[in-house]
Specification:
five-stranded mixed sheet; single chain; 43% helix; alpha/beta; 452 residues
Length: 452
């Protein structure tokens, strides 16, 4: 009993105080419990998945002890254009204290000045306000916080879609704008409403011509497979064709719902190119600051996951080599980039159509001291999950922050949560959708003890 009391006192100290007079924190857990790895909501949910976690920890331990960050890391991911969910999560993690209702109305706490904040990608799409989300993120960068921004698949798809629509037309890329479907239309509408986009309409052709430019040509479905075969498997090509067929109707419906014409959509895309991709654009910083991977000791932070090619590059040149390749390739051929190994870091779910991570890749990472991936991309409804994927321990930290996803998936209110990683090796999964903060230490927890 005394040991349990000591553990409760110890873990309680890992929850930073929350300072926020602008929202209700009653749903935020203020007590820790051991991470329930055997449960589906927090682990794999089967005996085999628990065994896989144990085996991953055992294999990683054979390569030496864990190396922990020198100061706390706060990881939050997939805010998806919900500035309020983003700000509440920062406050829930004890990093900011809000001073008003607007996106930039906050100041760092003492803990916020001490911590490293890693934003795990997917800041864009879904809603309710992409520009408010970007304004909140910009304010965080302007503060004295140590902030690192990772690329997400939605962020990159938006960049590549704008490039494809407003640049030279190609059978490989002419479908990318419509492929984004309904999720990006709210951003186009926001840009139309906030910036002098209507002035661009003077130089645009009529509605039919703009529609023809936005949608792929009739011969696209015949020409695309042959050209794409150099970059994608037959299964992935077939999936791409089927996906676009579904997206066409979604895109039309969402444009109508937003009260836009195709001329307005095209003008908004041109304005987005100025705002996001021109060197002096108001949001050029968003892609300029973006990286694809971060490492701290034994931990690797990435939006989605890895494949063998990226494991090899990481082992040879470290995160700098991976990020340099990301920055170089992102501005080249959009299609080859998005379906290549670098962008696989932001979109893989370890499906057959994804680039593969094998035992060899995992051994490569373990040999370099990397024992766990902290990721977003896979959203969960009851806080974070810990499970082994391809033999490598992954912490899924997307806790469904944005209201659009929460409505669609039966969750109420605005999401709130973050993952805290301490120099002591303690990991805390914090989410308003789970009654306790989840506590895990890979070297002290029973499942993570080194074999004798």
């Amino acid at each position: 009993m005394a040991d349990q009391d000591m553990m409760r006192q110890y873990t309680a100290a890992l929850l930073p105080p929350v300072h926020d007079a602008f929202c209700d924190f009653s749903a935020l857990p203020r007590h820790c419990a051991a991470w329930p790895l055997a449960e589906r909501h927090s682990g794999g949910g089967t005996h085999d998945s628990l065994r896989d976690v144990q085996q991953s920890l055992k294999t990683a331990a054979a390569h030496g002890g864990w190396q922990w960050p020198g100061r706390p890391i706060v990881f939050l991911s997939d805010p998806h254009a919900d500035a309020e969910g983003f700000l509440r999560s920062l406050a829930a993690a004890g990093t900011i204290q809000r001073t008003g209702p607007h996106p930039a109305d906050f100041e760092l706490t003492r803990f916020g000045r001490q911590a490293r904040i890693v934003v795990g990608g997917d800041c864009l799409d879904k809603g309710p306000s992409n520009l408010d989300m970007l304004d909140a993120l910009a304010a965080l960068f302007v503060s004295s916080a140590d902030v690192h921004l990772l690329a997400g698949n939605h962020d990159l798809r938006f960049m590549l879609a704008v490039q494809a629509l407003t640049g030279p037309r190609s059978p490989l890329t002419e479908h990318l704008f419509v492929r984004m479907g309904r999720k990006t239309v709210p951003l186009l509408r926001e840009v139309w409403d906030r910036f002098p986009t209507a002035a661009l309409m003077r130089d645009l052709p009529d509605e039919a011509a703009c529609r023809a430019r936005i949608f792929p040509t009739k011969k696209w479905a015949r020409s695309f497979p042959n050209l794409a075969s150099a970059h994608m498997s037959a299964g992935a090509i077939d999936k791409e064709l089927r996906r676009l067929q579904a997206k066409r109707g979604q895109f039309d419906a969402e444009v109508a719902k937003a009260g836009m014409t195709m001329r307005m959509v095209y003008a908004s895309a041109l304005m987005c190119r100025k705002l996001f991709l021109a060197g002096d654009g108001a949001y050029a910083w968003f892609y300029d600051r973006m990286e694809v991977i971060q490492r701290s000791g034994s931990l690797l932070f990435v939006h989605a996951g890895l494949d063998d090619a990226m494991c090899t590059l990481l082992a040879a040149g470290g995160p700098d080599a991976v990020n340099a390749r990301f920055r170089h390739e992102a501005r080249l051929d959009p299609f080859a980039f998005y379906f290549g190994p670098v962008a696989n870091l932001v979109r893989t779910k370890y499906r057959e159509t994804d680039k593969h991570l094998t035992e060899g890749g995992v051994r490569c990472l373990h040999g370099k001291g990397i024992k766990m991936v902290v990721q977003g991309h896979v959203n969960n409804h009851q806080g974070q999950r810990l499970l082994a994927k391809r033999g490598l321990l992954h912490l899924e930290a997307d806790v469904t922050l944005d209201r659009a996803s929460r409505r669609l998936e039966g969750l109420s209110g605005i999401g709130m949560g973050a993952t805290l990683i301490y120099p002591s090796g303690d990991i805390i999964g914090l989410s308003a959708d789970f009654p306790q903060a989840k506590h895990f230490h890979p070297e002290h927890s029973a499942v993570g003890r080194r074999p004798k």
